[in-house]
Amino acid sequence: MKLRGLRAAGLGGVGIGAFAVLAVLGALVCAPAHGQTYDVVISHGIVMDPESGLDAVRNVGISSGRIRTISTASLTGKRDIDARGLVVAPGFIDVHEHGQEPRNYQFQAHDGVTTSLELELGTDDVGKWYAAREGKSLINFGVSAGHIPMRIRAMTGQEVPSLSAMNTPVAEAANHRELTAEELGRLRAAIETGLQEGALAEGMGINYTPGASHWEILEMFRLAVKYHAPLQVHLRYSSLLEPQSGAAALEEVIAAAAVTGAQLHVAHITSMGLKYTPQFIEMIAGARRQGVDITTECYPYTASSTNLNSAVFDEGWQQRYDITYKDLQWAETGERLTPESFARYRRQGGLVVIHEIPEAAVRAAVADPSIMIASDGLPITGPKIHPRGQGTFSRVLGHYVREEKALDLMTALRKMTLLPAQLLEKRAPSFRNKGRLRVGADADVTVFDPSRVIDKATFEEPLQYSEGIVFVLVNGVLVVKDGELVEGVYPGREARAPSPQIGRKDAANPAGRCGEWPFCSGSPSGARTAGHGHMAVFGRCETVPSVSRERRAIRAG
Ligand SMILES: [Zn+2]
Predict the structure, then answer these.
(1) Span from the CA of 302 to the centroid of ligand 1 (angstroms)
(2) Whole-angstrom distance, CA of residue 372 vs CA of residue 286
(3) How far is the CA of 487 from the centre of ligand 1 (A)?
(4) What CA–CA distance (Å, rounded) separates 402 from 228?
(5) What is the pLDDT along the chain (557 residues), one digit of tens a residue?
(6) d(CA 373, CA 555)
(7) What pTM was computed for the model?
(8) Whose CA is closest to 266, among 243, 297, 236, 293?
(9) 300 CA to middle of ligand 1, Å?
(10) Which residues lie below 8 Å from residue 381, measured CB to CB, with a gap of 6+?
């Protein structure tokens, strides 16, 4: 009966939602076939899926990078993973991770992350960013069109290849200056190019570009709307003092979202709200109730981290954040700062850890079911960096779920998987197959021991792998096995939005992306095929026979 109803609802069409329906139907029609051998079987684990609410012992069959069955029946696999007593969850999606190098990916895999996204600062060259990671990555990766780097480039002509390049003296002069009309034109064109090249979002760090006017911000929001892209925004201020307070900065972007209709995601709410974090959470919830498309995220630490030579530490920082020199920790050595060392290191430039977030603020955000978990992890520039990039997800599971009982496990998993996927799926429909443990979903799976999972990275010893994350699969390939990294595998794929230049092979689309439904954003595997056999699988154009098989099965009844 259900099948007939859904068929009548138009499964023959090619609407964007249809594949999600197909995938759900796949779960209904794909009983485990007798005698079938899967590539990988995860046996006897406690399967937890925040979308369906499934929380029961099941066997999971995986083939060709996708989940093919979830069953109580025993399954046969070429490889069998015994998950008895372990939780089998969708792989974690980190929507805020600046560390996008192989070493970062290793730490993240150990923390259960299967998709790592640099959406806040982003990049000034989207095509180049993706190309540099293709075929070389342990986990899936993605990036935004970055307002800060593109703005610097539009004003100075200089490329901005790294985090530190955003804080050179030339870049800082640009960050503090308003754009000319000509520069705004160049910036707008750069952002549009980035979005056309498949950037997942538009990234902004208004705190780092104090020269950006409110008009410029509105203009950037309008561009994001044009491309159905979410904006991930680090607010203009995090100060406790009026009138340039964090609350005023939150009002600025809520207003911009209300005026333009943009999808707004506020970065790291605790380091913006500080002691007013509960009030920030209420402002965001209130805006959402009034119809503003707004979400936020947090990391589970009482310290933030950024460049000491950025605008965040312009004159008056002690009053703004209600901290002093000893609350600053020079990342490279771990030493607490003094007026003298502050002046010296600010001239030199580099990362500083800022002990400024009250525990009550962290707990309020971590426990809130609507707030995503995101690490804000940093490139590993030395032995002493903020531990958040290495331990965020295990810290939530081990410390806040198991030890503190601040939230339940399913809620925590939802904040790490389904919510981040939903943030991006309007812009990049491939995310409809991420963040879920269901038939048809990508086989990004994190298997952990709920009685043992814990972060080990600390401020003193930040380069420590989390513990208790036992198996991690990325697109069906094991990257962590029995708690150890698997060497020499690179199953990570690009997480990329569809390009509007589909189907044409020209200078703007040298790969000749095929444009097949739902969206093809990757390299071509040939011409259009009848029956929509093609689909974008994380940036790859791939023929998926199971889709048409499932479709036939549905049609048959
Ligand atoms: Zn930030």
Answers:
(1) 15
(2) 17
(3) 32
(4) 38
(5) 333 333 333 333 333 344 444 444 444 444 445 679 999 999 999 999 999 999 999 999 999 999 999 999 999 999 999 999 999 999 999 999 999 999 999 999 999 999 999 999 999 999 999 999 999 999 999 999 999 999 999 999 999 988 888 989 999 999 999 999 999 999 999 999 999 999 999 999 999 999 999 999 999 999 999 999 999 999 999 999 999 999 999 999 999 999 999 999 999 999 999 999 999 999 999 999 999 999 999 999 999 999 999 989 999 999 999 999 999 999 888 899 999 999 999 999 999 999 999 999 999 999 999 999 999 999 998 888 999 999 999 999 999 999 999 999 999 999 999 999 999 999 999 999 999 999 999 999 999 999 999 999 999 899 999 999 999 999 999 999 999 999 999 999 999 998 754 444 455 445 554 443 334 444 443 333 333 333 333 334 443 333 333 333 333 32
(6) 40
(7) 0.85
(8) 297
(9) 15
(10) 331, 332, 350, 351
Cα of 233 vs centre of ligand 1, distance in Å, is 8
The H or E element that residue 115 is part of is: strand 113-123
Q: What is the 3-state secondary structure (H, E, C) of 38-106?
A: EEEEEEEEEEECCCCCCEEEEEEEEECCEEEEEECCCCEEEEEEECCCCEEEECEEECEECCCCHHHHH
267 Cα to the center of ligand 1, angstroms: 6
Q: Is the dihedral of CA 276, 280, 282, 283 positive or negative?
A: positive
Encoded tokens for 149: 């780097």
- Find the helix or strand (DSSP H, E) in which 555 lies: helix 545-556
Set out the domains of the chain in order of their start, with CATH numbers: 1-30+499-557 (no CATH), 93-302+357-428 (3.20.20.140), 303-356 (no CATH)
How far does the centroid of ligand 1 lie from the alpha carbon of residue 264, in Å? 14
CA–centroid distance, residue 375 to ligand 1 (Å): 10
Whether 49 and 90 have beta carbons less than 8 Å apart is answered as: yes
CA of 318 to the centre of ligand 1 (A): 19
Look up residue 277 and give its two tokens. 């974090």
CA of 120 to the centre of ligand 1 (A): 7
Q: For residues 61 and 502, what is the distance between their CA atoms, to the nearest angstrom? A: 34
Distance 503 CA to ligand 1 centre (A): 36
